[in-house]
Amino acid sequence: MRGPHNIWRLIRTGATLERTGAMNVVLDAFEAPPTLRFVARALGLPFKWLGYAGDPTMPPATRALTALGPAYIKFGQILSTRPDVVGDELAIQLRVLQDKLPPFSVEEAKAEVQRELGLPVDQIFSEFSEPVAAASIAQVHKARLVSNGEAVAVKVLRPGIEKAFRKDVDAFYLAARMVEIFSPGSRRLRPMEVIEHFDGVVRGELDLRLESSAASEFAANTKNDEGFQLPQMKWEYSARRVMTLGWADGVPMGDNAAIDAAGHNRVDLGDRVLNLFLNHALRDGYFHADMHQGNLKVAPNGDIIAYDFGIMGHIDEYTRRVYAEILFGFIRKDYKRVAEVHFEAGYVPADKDVDEFARALRAVGEPIFGMDANHISMGRLLNYLFEVTERFGMETRTELILLQRTMVVVEGVARSLNPQINIWQVAAPLVTDYISKSIGPKAVLTDLAKTARVVTRFGPRLPGMVEAALIRQSNAEDPPRTHGFLERVFLAVVFGVSVGLGGAATLILIDMTLF
C-alpha cells in the first residue's frame, strides 16, 4: 500500500487540523516560530475543505486526532502526559484519548467474543457490561465468569482496526521517505527505521495473544515487587482478538482528586511509579512501554496496578548497562564518563573528539541541574541531548526508542502526581545500585560464568572454526600476512580459553584478524 496515493492522507492531516481548529492550538502548544507557522498555515488552509470534521463536541486537538485515526490517537496519548511540553490545557484535552474514546456497540463486541472463543457469550459470562473504557485499538467490558462468578475484564479489538492502522502507518512511511529526500541532514535519524520499529510494535498490539503472553511474562518478572500488582491472565478465555484477565479495582491514576479522597500519598505514588519503571527496565530489561495514566490505577491498599500490555519494551543486558551508565554519569555530573560511554557504545562516530563532546554534554546538564526541583525534566534533558548528538553525528538508536519515549511518559505521570518531584533525586539510589551490581567485581564474575557456558557450547567446534579461518586466509590475496595471522589466531585461542572469555572473545579476535 505504500506509494504516492498516501500523499492524500498527509494532505488530509493538515486539512483536518485546520478544519477542526486544532492547527493554532498545536502550533501555540509547541511555541512554533513564525516561519513554521507560516508554512503550516500555507499548506493547511487551501485544503481545509478536505479535512475530516470530527466530533464537534470534542476540544479541537482531540477532535482532530480522533478523526484522523488510531496512529494519531497514539501520538496524542503520549502528549497528554507532557503538560510541561504542550501546556496544561492541551494535556487535559488530550487525556480523554487514553480511555474515553467513542465505543463500538456491545452487540458487536459479543459477536467478536463468540467468533474468537467458539462459544455463545452467555455460556462463558453470566454478565457482560456496556463498554467501560474505549481506547484507540480496543475497548474493555466488565464481565463475570459463569464458572466461578469472578469479575473479569474482557478486551476486544475494534472492528476493522487492522485495516485502519495499516492506512495510517503507510502514510507515515511516505512522510519518513519525504523527510529523507528533502532533508538529507535528517538521514542520520533513520526515519524509515523509526517507522518500521513503530510498525512492528503496532502489529504486536493488534494480536491479543501476544499481549496475553506479555502480561504473563511481566507478571512473572514483577511478582515480588512491593506496591505493584497486575491482573491475572485468563488464558482459556483469550484469543487473537479477545483477551480476558482479572478485574482491577482501584482509582484511576489520572484522577488526583479521587486519589486524595481515597487517602493515598501522591508524593509516594510519584516516586514509586518512576522507580518501578527504572527497575523493570534495568533489572529485567522488560518493561511496560505504555505507562500513561489510562493504563494505571491505585488499588484500595495503595498498590499501583498496571494493565494494557499491548506495548512492551525489551532491551538487552549490554544496552541496559549503557543506559544506566549514561544516567549515572548525569546524576554524578561526570560528563566525561557520559561522553566516553557514548563512544564506547558506538553511538557517536569514533572520529569525533571525546573531550569536546564532554564539554557539550556539560552545557546540556549544568543548566538543568541548576533549576528548581520542579523544573528538572527528563524530557528537557532528552531534547537538549538530541540537539548535541545531532551536532556530533549520532544516529538514532531504534532499540532505544521505546525506552526513551516511556521514560518521558513515566516522568509525565510522576509529575502529574507530584509537580515538585526531583526526577534525578528519586532515580539516583536505584541507578547507583544497578551500576554497582552490573559493573562491579560481582558482575565480572557473572560475566565470566556466562562466557564459560559459551566455551562449553562452542568448545568442540573451535578447532574446526580455526581451521576454516586458516584456509580462508591461505586463499586470500595477501600471502605475506599469513605468518602474523597464525600467531594472532594462536594467541586469540589461548587467551580466550585461559581467561574464560571463551568462544565469543575468540571468534571476535579471529574475525578481526581476517579483515
UniProtKB/TrEMBL annotation:
Keyword flag Transmembrane helix: yes
UniProt pathway: Cofactor biosynthesis; ubiquinone biosynthesis [regulation]
Segments passing through the bilayer: 489-510
Superkingdom of the organism of origin: Bacteria
GO molecular function list: ATP binding; kinase activity
GO biological process, one term: ubiquinone biosynthetic process
Residues spanning the signal sequence: none
Location of the ABC1 atypical kinase-like domain: 97-342
Keyword Transferase listed: yes
CDD domains to which the protein is assigned, alphabetical: UbiB
Protein name: ABC1 atypical kinase-like domain-containing protein
